[in-house]
Sequence to fold (236 residues):
Amino acid sequence: MKSDKLTESVAASSVPRHVGIIMDGNGRWATKRLLPRAAGHRAGVKNITPVVTCALEYGVRCVTLYAFSTENKNRPQDEVSALVDLIRKRLKPMTRELIERGARVVFSGERDYFPDDVIAIMSDVENENTDKSAQVVNIALNYSGRAEIVRAARLAARRGEITPDGLERELYTSGLPELDMIVRTGGEKRLSNFLLYQAAYSELFFTDTLWPDFDSAEFTEMLDEFGRRQRRFGRV
Ligand code: FPP
Fold:
């Protein structure tokens, strides 16, 4: 049953249905230029729209961006404040542009952590969505894969439905397409608590390119390579 969902339409299409992106390397990008780390995050935000647009034009149905992990809160206070401030200032204009390009924006993560004005911005963004059937940009904010699984298990247990379907219904990504591909920039080769449940059969792509330098040309090469990879889902 599960494997039918996993393989649904993949045979017919070599385009990943859902791509997760770990946008790593902003700090090093800034340090290399003798700039404060916050400048790297600002450059990182500027790079989101072109890369996401590339995915949407390629035909990807959903892109999940790892924008702020639960663990990012343990960074020095000034960097955390700079990140929250960036979300406060840039989230609405950035998402408005994506919605104008035909996308629907949703969020994953524990939003209660954020100040009230930032939570209100997230609600405003959700209210700007018009097309329910549009391609989705899912922004992970104060997100932890382990916390998501624990939360989903708790909710599924409350309904007495601890089954794969019951649990998946309670994930933030419920209703979104199967995660076919994960891209991590910045040279590290790990998942860092990103979409742990959803990554079960994802194809993984790593590049040394720092996130602000990651461009459509390199992304398109990865998307093309995805189409050439043989996916077996545990079969021969
Ligand atoms: C990793 O780089 C990146 C982050 C921790 C944050 C990514 C966030 C954004 C691009 C902005 C989010 C804002 C909006 C409006 C969605 P790093 O700092 O760990 O880089 P390093 O490994 O080089 O230090």
